[in-house]
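# nightly structure sweep
# worker-07 picked up a monomer target from the shared queue
# config: single-sequence mode, recycle default, output format = structure tokens
# input follows
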Amino acid sequence: MTTTTDLRQGIAILFKDQPWLITTAQFVSPGKGSAFTRAKLKNLKTDQVVEHTFKSGEALELVDVLRSKCQYLYNDGEGYHFMNNDNYEQFSLQKSVIEDSIKFLTENTECYALYIENVPVSIQLPTKMDFKVISAPPGVKGDTATGGAKECTIETGAIIRTPLFIKEGDVIKVNTEDGSYVSKG
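# output follows
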């Protein structure tokens, strides 16, 4: 058992008799009224994503989730294939299960597989990863009306907002949780 004050990304809880993974959690303490935690949850069996607000101090049951290092191998059109680094067993997950992570998967990406009852149900990427920029429009000097940012395409095809000085061929660090630029690699 845990309480809502302990909620954070990566924890699995039992919610509505189903296992859910916390993808984001934000503790809110308004000036007036009771504190609460706003969380985004992903159902580990159905892939449904919901947002829910938990009252502060509400008791929640944790789900026993085993995390094991794995490596992304390839996508064959039917599934995304991974290898468990501990026992070298291969497994695949459907696109719908890992949809948020796909835009940051490159061959040999090291990540964590999440297992419930010895069945892989999802993956968890490192929070920050490095990617090569494959397409970047030129930054125009003095173009700061838009906050001094431009959209660049990284090697996976994802589009990331970066500072104007980033150019094609640069390696940048990206936050995989929200897709934001962190720094030049």
